[in-house]
Amino acid sequence: MVSGFSRQPIAVAEIAWERPRRGRRSSWVPSVALATLGLAIAAQGRSYAAIEARSMTGGAVAFFVYAYCVSWVMMRYRLRALVATTVLIFVWLAAAFAFWLIALG
Amino acid sequence: MTVHLNPSGLGQAKWHEYAVRFLFGGLITAAAGIIAKKFGPGIGGLFLAFPAIFPASATLIEKHVKQKKERAGFDGTKRARAAASLDAAGAARGSIGLMAFALLVWRFIPDHTAYAVLAGSAVVWLAVSVGVWQLRKHRYIRR
Known about the structure:
Chain A has 105 residues and is an all-alpha fold. Chain A has helices at 2-16, 31-44, 46-77, 81-87, 89-104, and one strand at residues 17-18. Chain B is mainly α. Helices cover 80% and strands 1% of the residues of chain B.
């Protein structure tokens, strides 16, 4: 709920902020992170949130890989956005867990 | 292209499109909490950067651009795909800001006030994202 509400001003701003040819930004606004870290701090403490944030760096690296793959695959193989973004979720999962195993595990 | 505010764009979005974003954001937050509880914060933290909203956003961008082109009497499929692809490339660049946010929270939250660290990291996220955007824009113009 917290994340859902935190997204609304961002979604409104995204639609009002006209930048159609360069990609919008709210897909990667840290709204989920802010909400989850806030809840984690309240429930588990700051050390717990720090561990989550450390792993989040791996998730962000994986997001970079995933989003570039989506961009490339859509143009190269002429896939629809829904298909490309859904099918390539496995790229995010693979990159995130690989980063976690290599750098953080 | 100059970035500018266009409030009329708000009228183009339907209520269910806001609802989709709300739902996905909430669901992933809940899922991240459950994963962290079951597998620990090390694994749960990864999901703080899960592409929760991105598939819905990219799909909606593709749909809007296609509809706009069709209203003008064109097919719009290629243009819509290109718009969604550019959105994805922009999201990839934006994830650099997300990395900066996570690094700052990780390094500073154990020894500083939580709200100050979260607020400061969010400001840095915005600054890095705008900086990466400007850098890309200048490189694009120079070409």
